[in-house]
Write a structure and sequence with these properties.
With about 325 residues, the protein is α/β, with parallel strands linked by helices. It is about 40% helix and about 25% strand. It folds into two domains: about 5-230, 3-Layer(aba) Sandwich (Rossmann fold); about 240-315, 2-Layer Sandwich (Alpha-Beta Plaits). It has helices at about 5-10, 55-60, 85-90, 105-115, 120-130, 150-160, 180-190, 205-210, 230-240, 250-255, 280-295, 310-320; strands at about 15-25, 30-35, 40, 45-50, 70-75, 80, 90, 165-170, 195-200, 215-220, 220-225, 240-245, 260-265, 275-280, 300-305. The protein has a six-stranded mixed beta sheet, with helices on both faces. A hairpin with a 6-residue loop joins β1 (about 15-25) and β2 (about 30-35). The radius of gyration is 24 Å and the shape is elongated. The structure holds adenosine-5'-diphosphate (ADP) and magnesium ion (MG). Adenosine-5'-diphosphate binds next to β2 and α2.
Length: about 325
């Protein structure tokens, strides 16, 4: 019998093992992707992280645009960078470059021909895609006359011309005004009915609108992969997280675990301090000192942690279109 692990690689649209990217050499070395392990099954999967997190570097290794320094990546069992893997994916880069002298229609036909699609089918495919992306009126205009939004749409169409099974989008909504962003999000949702999509973004609110699951990356490391619901819950846990240290943490943990306003409490293995999530910060701040006195304990510290993880998330949250500004 095959082991479960052996079976798995081919079940995953994306499967990485210690995937690493180092740019440059010597003192100019940059560790952009730091041995990441993550997987994506079917559906729409977000790749969330602040600027410089390593999203584009990861994606470029997946599509075979740059070399893998160390580790492995497979797309449905096909090794990243191989011809089979490339045929399997469609890709929209963060800053797409076009043959701007071509018209939209000519460009798509050209790409289709590059992918060995017969001439008559190529034109039909191109027209279908132009229709899908509401670009029929612009089909005979040169791409250099297109707006940013139109360019993004023709970029998406280009990624779809060879019927990929997996579409990889690198920050498809960056550099676009809010209205066009919304449109692109709608197109992505429409496309997602027919294929699996991997989308990088630094904006949680956008990932939320498109994705079922999300992988969070920061400073070249994967922080977590989970459903969008759990990630949202997790974010709010993190902003409501406190650390308490007393002279008897075991005792105090059992006391506060009984409180209604505590949603989660545990003792951190390394620091041996109590970590608590609350759903009522005000009440929590009042009750903790009171309880300490009542139980005749000594409070050594009581604060909100400033871990790098939290920094990362705050950074992401702050970039969340100013939604949570001032909080
Ligand atoms: N070609 C390159 N040469 C050197 N460093 C690079 C290069 N491309 C990216 N980096 C660095 O790698 C890190 C990750 O970048 P990138 O993958 O573009 O992140 P993201 O797409 O999440 O913004 C950053 O520190 C960036 O400056
Ligand atoms: Mg990027």
């Amino acid at each position: 019998m095959k082991s479960i692990q052996q079976d798995n690689i081919e079940d995953y649209y994306i499967w990485t093992n210690k995937l690493t990217k180092v740019y440059g050499t010597g003192t100019k070395k940059v560790l952009a992707v730091d041995g990441i392990d993550f997987t994506m099954r079917s559906g729409v999967h977000g790749f969330l992280g602040p600027n410089g997190a390593g999203k584009t570097s990861t994606i470029n290794m997946l599509i075979g645009a740059i070399s893998i320094t160390e580790g492995n990546a497979f797309l449905k069992g096909k090794k990243a960078g191989t011809k089979k893997a490339r045929e399997f994916i469609g890709f929209l880069p963060q800053d797409p470059a076009f043959y701007e002298k071509l018209t939209g229609l000519a460009y798509l036909i050209f790409l289709a021909r590059m992918n060995s699609i017969p001439k008559n089918i190529a034109k039909q495919k191109a027209l279908n895609l132009l229709k899908f992306f509401d670009l029929m009126e612009e089909k005979d205009r040169k791409i250099k006359t297109y707006s940013m939004g139109m360019k993004q749409k023709i970029g998406l169409a280009a990624g779809l011309i060879h019927n990929p099974k997996l579409l990889i989008l690198d920050e498809p909504t960056s550099n676009l005004d809010p209205l066009v962003r919304k449109k692109i999000i709608d197109y992505v949702r429409k496309i997602s009915k027919d294929m699996s999509i991997f989308i990088s973004s630094h904006v949680l609110s956008e990932v939320e609108q498109m994705c079922d699951r999300v992988t969070i990356i920061n400073k070249g490391k994967i922080k977590l992969t989970d459903t969008i619901q759990n990630v949202k819950k997790w974010f709010s846990n993190f902003t409501n997280l406190y650390v308490i240290d007393t002279n008897s943490n075991e005792t105090f943990l059992s006391v506060i675990k009984e409180l209604k306003i505590i949603t989660n409490a545990w003792i951190d293995e390394k620091e041996k301090k109590i970590y608590v999530n609350t759903n009522d910060i005000e009440q929590f701040q009042k009750e903790i000192p009171k309880l300490i006195i009542e139980k005749e304990l000594i409070l050594k510290s009581f604060y909100q942690p400033e871990s790098s993880l939290q920094d990362a998330f705050l950074e992401i949250i702050n970039k969340d279109e100013g939604k949570r500004n001032g909080s």
